[in-house]
Amino acid sequence: MSTANPHPSLSDVTAAFEEVYPPRWAASWDAVGLVCGDPAQGVGRVLFAVDPVEAVVDEALDWGADLIVTHHPLMLRGVTSVAAHTPKGRVVHRLIRAGVALYTAHTNADTAAPGVSDALARAVGLAGPLRPLDPDPTDPEGHRGIGRVGTLAEPMTLGDFAAQVRDGLPDTPAGIRAAGDLDRRVSTVAVSGGAGDSLLDAARAAGADVFVTSDLRHHPATEFVALPGAPALIDTPHFASEWPWLQDGADHLVAALGRTAGRNGANVETRVSTTVTDAWSRAFTHV
């Protein structure tokens, strides 16, 4: 005698998640959604991670996950092969052999409200209401968009705020970097999870005292901080700036499943990966 699967199907789980982070919100160049997995398979455990790399697959298999949700896509650029001797191919083969699905929420999670930058804003200590740094013109309410702007509960020096950012984000070998007068008082803060040097002008136009983002380049940063009235800069590791969103994504999935999957939705367990997948494994500095 067969019994019903106590867990929702993969298609039910992804449908619930897409109520919160619709794929149509993703940028035209992005690759979001289901990468591999049988839509009919049951899902009891979901691991959230920033990057779809082998170390995350190891963690998922050790825990017994049925689904990995990552922020970064595995197949962002086109490939002609997923042979197992390639990095992407090894991931795909391992997942398929183990029956583990992979799903990506990237720029649709960036632009959502709340989204990736809301979680970053909370992690670094912003208080009060937040507004988009680069609003989504398709959102009539003006809540969605890339990046956020908010204020600190109390003004502080750039040096103290940089230390607060460091303490609020996962520890990575590269740490964080600051550009500007460390004694400067800062109150209005712009943040953008992930690579944000395309938003430097937006941060200045927003009246920010400091802009927190990742992957800032030498020449643009040097020229930017020399502009009159320009914000100071805090450059964080890319992985670290997006990791705070993972718990939000997990919580929103659980809530959405409660609305859409009924009793089975309560049987889904989530976990946030603690594997540091920052590309830089060690920083060498003079003591």
Automatic annotation (TrEMBL):
Coiled coil: none annotated. GO terms for molecular function: metal ion binding. It comes from Nocardiopsis aegyptia. GO terms for cellular component: cytoplasm. It comes from the Bacteria. A divalent metal cation binds at residues 71-72, 110, 238, 242. Belongs to the GTP cyclohydrolase I type 2/NIF3 family. This is GTP cyclohydrolase 1 type 2 homolog.
